Amino acid sequence: MTVKRIVANVAAADPARARAFYEELLGLKVVMDFGWIVTLASDGAAAPQLSFASEGGSGTSVPDLSIEVDDVDRVYERAKAADMDIVYDIVDEPWGVRRFYVRDPFGRVLNILAHSG
Description:
Order of helices and strands: HEEEHEEE
Strand content: 25-35%
Number of domains: 1
Structural class: alpha+beta
Helix content: 10-25%
Radius of gyration: 14 Å
Largest sheet: 4 strands, mixed
Strand order of the largest sheet: 3-6-5-4
CATH class: Alpha Beta
Shape: globular
Distance between the termini: 33 Å
């Protein structure tokens, strides 16, 4: 048996608002939109993963979602330019990631990261 995909289902009172936020910040594309549910995706491929954590690292709280990108500094600049709520500023962590936390319009904390080297 093989897990083909894992989808994060995030409660959002206004899926259209979520669509706008995630399209603007991450450049995700709509692959399904029924009004009550919007599914966004990227062209990248990744293996399904689940993480279980007692903290977010460096004394931070556990983020709701971790999203790996190829250019974390570019995404950080988009977030700053759009005056999004940065709750943990961009930093190089000792375990080999560069990341920041941003809050989405529904209060979810996103760990936006890129692996170093």
